[in-house]
Write a structure and sequence with these properties.
single chain, 263 residues, alpha/beta, Undecaprenyl pyrophosphate synthetase, 6-stranded parallel sheet, 10 helices, globular, binds 3-methylbut-3-enyl trihydrogen diphosphate, binds magnesium ion
Length: 263
């Protein structure tokens, strides 16, 4: 029986079996996700791109719930990049509408599941009606102590680094910090992700082998998982499989690691 089970291909395990395979003592604290492939998912079905975004939204809702139930501390979802303004205006408009729909639909659930919502990126560059909804959800969930849901909107990592440098220069001019003592920890405090541990895992769906200007500083030692699944098809099973894979990896952070040490 056990032998047969071990032989099963990963995708044949039931959700229950997958959940049982996860070591609750070795959970990633922070999972970051590049939710990619909505357009291709729609194209395969001869649907408009926005249909892919709509189903992609359902994946996002599901993944937030699964991460929250697993006991992950932080989930960062890349929802709209600073470069995504280059898309046709109709698509950009639909994405903004979907974001507001998400926040309105999910607020009650976030409260119920103790989820704290936060947006990262140049939020002031978003339309006023989107900003208002972000402010409302952030404020309403600010005292929740469960999963921190970071949604990256109008986010570009190089812009984030420039914003950090500006903050540091301004504080140095006001004598609030001493440049000679600037270290990695202090620098991190000026990023949008301040107070958040670096991602343990980065998941990118749809198989693209690139980072697309996401969390360049924070991903320095993250474990990378690029999966072929398109985002609208990425649900509970796919996330559990990625976490199981994560738990098999040896993170070395530049050391020689456990295996070499034991030889
Ligand atoms: C990801 O899906 C969603 C956003 C970038 C907002 P895409 O829209 O990039 O889908 P593909 O990459 O064209 O398939
Ligand atoms: C990255 O996906 C941005 C988001 C998922 C929001 P893109 O589809 O925009 O990335 P590229 O253009 O393929 O690198
Ligand atoms: Mg894409």
């Amino acid at each position: 029986m056990i032998k047969r089970r071990l032989k099963k291909a990963g995708n044949e395990f039931s959700k229950k079996e997958l959940r049982a395979m996860i070591d609750s003592q070795n959970l990633p604290r922070h999972i970051a996700v590049i939710m990619d492939g909505n357009g291709r998912w729609a194209k395969k079905r001869m649907l408009p791109r926005v249909a892919g975004h709509r189903i992609g939204l359902e994946s996002a809702i599901k993944i937030v719930r699964v991460a929250s139930n697993l006991g992950v501390q932080v989930l960062t979802l890349y929802a709209f990049s600073a470069e995504n303004w280059r898309r046709p205006p109709e698509e950009v408009g639909e994405l903004m509408k979907l974001l507001v729909e998400y926040l309105r639909r999910e607020l009650l659930d976030m409260q119920k599941n103790n989820v704290r919502f936060q947006a990262i990126g140049r939020i002031s560059g978003l339309p006023g009606w989107v900003q208002e909804e972000i402010r409302w959800s952030t404020d309403q969930t600010k005292d929740n102590t469960g999963l921190l849901l970071n949604v990256a909107l109008n986010y570009g990592s190089r812009l984030e680094i420039i914003d950090a440098v500006k903050g540091i220069v301004s504080d140095a001019q006001d004598n609030k910090i001493d440049i000679d003592n600037l270290d990695e920890e202090t620098f991190s405090d000026y990023l949008y992700t301040k107070d958040v541990p670096d991602p343990d895992m980065l998941i990118r769906t749809s198989g693209e082998m690139r980072i697309s200007n996401f969390l360049l500083w924070q991903l320095a030692y993250s474990e990378l998982f690029i999966v072929p699944t398109l985002w609208p098809d990425f649900r509970e099973k796919e996330l559990l499989q990625a976490v199981i894979e994560y738990q098999k990896r040896e993170r070395r952070f530049g050391t020689i690691g456990k295996i070499a040490q034991s030889k």
